[in-house]
Every structure is written in C-alpha cells, then in structure tokens.
Design a protein that fits this description.
- By secondary structure, this protein is of the alpha/beta class.
- It is about 55% helix and about 10% strand.
- It has a 5-stranded parallel β-sheet, with helices on both faces.
- The protein is globular, with a radius of gyration of 17 Å.
Length: about 200
C-alpha cells in the first residue's frame, strides 16, 4: 500500500478516518506517536514538542520572538519541533515501508520518498464539527465554533509557513473528502482503494 498523508479541518473526523483506515488495512497509523518518538530520538522535551506541534501562529511579532531578532532559527522551539517531527516522520515511513500520517506537513515532508496518496478531510457541516468537538474537547457549546476556527487557523499557519503550500487547496491533494456527506468508514474505503489496498 502507498503511504497515506491526511490533513484535516478540526472536528471533521480526520483522525477517526485515519484510525479506521489503519484497522481496515493493517497499515501503521502515526499521530501523537510522532511526538513521543521525536522527543526520544532528538532529546527534545515532550512538553516543548506538544506546545509547538501544529500550533505555529505566524504573526510577525511571534516570528521575531520565536526565531530571535538575530535569525537564530535552530535554537527556536518552533524550528526544533518541526525539524524533530519531520525527521521522525521520514524515519517512521522508512522503518515501516509506508504508513498513515496525520497532519504535521507529512505530505510535503515525504514528497519524493515513494508512492504517496495525499488526502484532505473536511466537513461542510459546522454543526457536525461542533458536535464532534464537544465530545472530544473540554469546551463549552457557546465557544466551540471559535475554538474550531482557532484550531484551523493554527494548522493552516503552521502548514503554510513550513511548506509554502496552501493548506486545504485542492491542487495540493489527490482527494478531498467531506465527512458531512461521506461517513468515516466509506472515506477509509475510498482512501484504501486509492492507496492500492
């Protein structure tokens, strides 16, 4: 099976689709394990990695504070996190001869390292996204939509800063699936078929 990378809007069920795809195909699925392995392999504190994982803000002031006015990129938490995560993604893919990778710019990181299917999962129903968010996160009903928008903004800024690609643009993916109209199992079946399983 080809390597599969899945980007997703918050609350769309992208992680659930990835988990079902892994169960259906027997292919390893990597999400939070990437952070734990990156901490182990590069000696970076897990807390630092979690705080900077797909959370890049992207404002000019934030850039200057994180990277330093002298341009010392390598010592910044954002750069160290991205470096550790990207090297870990490459290593996990090589060790497992593929895999299913959730977020973290894996589609760009793994470009040229074997066959790959790039997937974007979204939901056109904010109501569905809010319901899922309320199940998974400690957030009130009245603040759920703002929470979702902030999470999407963090992911978009992180992705676009490190890849120079537009997050969610159809030209960057092989397929885009709407979980408001296609259930998780069917999404997983479609991806498995595209990936050759």
């Amino acid at each position: 099976m080809k390597t599969v990378t899945i980007d997703r809007t918050f609350g769309s069920g992208g992680r659930e689709v990835a988990a079902r795809l892994a169960k259906m195909t027997g292919v390893p699925f990597f999400d939070n394990e990437i952070i734990l392995k990156a901490a182990e392999n590069f000696g970076v504190d897990v807390g630092v990695l979690k705080n900077n994982d797909e959370h890049y803000v992207g404002s000019l002031i934030y850039n200057l504070s994180m990277f330093g006015a002298n341009g010392d990129y390598e010592s910044s938490p954002v750069y160290r996190t991205y470096f550790a995560v990207s090297e870990t993604v490459r290593k996990l893919r090589a060790e497992n001869d593929g895999g299913i990778f959730l977020g973290r710019c894996a589609d760009v990181i793994l470009e040229g390292e074997g066959p790959i299917v790039r997937v974007f999962i979204y939901s056109s129903s904010m109501e569905n996204r809010i319901a899922r968010t309320l199940q998974l996160e400690d957030v009130s009903d009245g603040k759920a939509e703002t929470f979702i928008q902030n999470k999407d903004k963090q992911r978009r800024n992180y992705y676009q800063f490190f890849t120079d690609n537009k997050w969610g643009a159809p030209t960057n993916y092989d397929i885009m699936l709407n979980t408001a109209t296609i259930n998780y199992d069917e999404c997983a079946r479609i991806i498995a078929q595209l990936a050759g399983n």
